[in-house]
Predict the 3D structure of the following.
Amino acid sequence: MAEPRFRPGDAVRVLKAYPLGHVRTPYYIRGHTGVIERICGSFPNPEELAQMRDGLPARPLYRVRFMQKEVWPDYRGNPADVVEIEIYQHWLEPA
Amino acid sequence: MKDQGKYQALTYFQLMEVSLRELLVEKGLVTERQVADAVADMRNRTPERGARVVAHAWTHREYKTRLLENGTRACEELGLDVPALKLVVVENTPQVHNVIVCTLCSCYPRMLLGIPPDWYKSRNYRSRMVREPRAVLAEFGLKIPRQTRIRVHDSTADMRYMVLPMRPAGTQGWSEERLAALVTRDSMIGVALAKEPRSK
Amino acid sequence: MIERGHHDMGGLPAGKVKPAEHDYAEWERRADALAVLMGGKGVTVDERRRHIEALPPEAYDKLSYYERWIVALTQALLQRGIITTEELARKMTQVERRG
């Protein structure tokens, strides 16, 4: 099982890609930059499990924290409001 | 296994459920007993289980630390079976309010709290909670002041989430059982606060 | 339309949240149970989600939650060859005739 590439506190950007298939990285967050909040562990890839394959080797899953005012151009809450999403490592690159 | 009551023609989807179940039983993949047991098992999973966890955390500081560190293990510590649940518990404070959504489907800590309500699975909740949490919370009757930070958790992968609501004031010395009665399902999703103690 | 799945709705405009909830019917609880039991036999939640995501948008919107689930579970079992369309047709006809 590979070492996680990122650590809590790292700035990461979500890939701006729109592949077909079963994807658990929501559309609204693609291309956005956030910070690793924690490493959740490593799990079989759901994109592969959905295709009846075993999704192995397991890959690192992170919780990533994004500032709402960066995600939504018209966001009108507290500027410190955040949205936190679980994202698989292969959807992240260093920011 | 027919539904009791007045005879009504099955809908297309009810027909599919009956047919699927009978085929699977005929093929020896499931038994009617297993289906009945699984139904009963889910029925027993109710928000009261989460309320117990919350009340225990309110009254035991070190337990609360463990709960926030590893939600699953902390539930198991209290004898709650939560098979395959990977639970993350997030704590409300006067500075931070947490709320849970699954925009992609309707992931929910079922093994702890049971089946989620319809509105949690609805288009309107799933679409808007990530983008305008204050407006949606206001529709639930919960007004979060602007100076309080909101953390929205979109449950996209393997983790499941529960909010640890703030302990209401005026509950000093209360037993865990009495405290648990203040903890609603909605407060553990984050669309409500725990109930206030009724004034005597 | 293809680039963004119909299910992938976070951030899209939508109406007020109706605090609706209903007490789940027995057939819905059984549908849930079947999905859980078949999960124990390797039919993953991920496959079922893929089948739900493949529903036509109008069906996705109009079907209730467990109606979507039972369709998705059926599709998953068909794809795996656990049941066949022919078997399903025969069984559905038999059940309907029985009443």
In short: The mean pLDDT of chain A is 97.
